[in-house]
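Predict structure. Chain length: 171.
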Amino acid sequence: MQPDFSAALDAKQVRAALKALREVDPNITKDLRQNLRSQLAPIASQIADAVPSAPPLSGFANGGATGWSAVTGKTSFTPGKSRFGGTSALVSIRVQPKATRGVYIAELAGSRTLGATAAGQNLIAVLNQRAPMKGRGGRYIYAKFRMLRPDVVRIAEGILDSTFKKLETFL
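Prediction complete.
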């Protein structure tokens, strides 16, 4: 019977499985962590590259808190760290601006409301003209992630399969 791989994992089960792996051989978990991070790092970079280097609107061209800055893509191994309802991601891919929040504002503007003020409505309208939001996730980062998600799942499943094969030698 094939193991059931799903997008969300039970955080308690993940912690218990990793604890058991560490007891069998600590190097297995170290290799799992290193392989997931290293093989998903190029995808994190591709996602970060989806964010334009120049601000989409002139109002973001400043050095203040809402200014535009370069971003970096990062991967981290996050088993058993759950913020929502007991489910956990095995790996997190984050895109972080180096200095300010302008990227996040442009990414999510209009994802929940159409704007509470005339200025907010105008901001969303112009952003939608320049980079339309597909669905409710985001304009740049989440849109690229949705395109690359099948690759992320394929890579993660391959790494988990190879880890399980190594584990079989101990059983």
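Summary: DSSP finds five helices and four strands in the chain.
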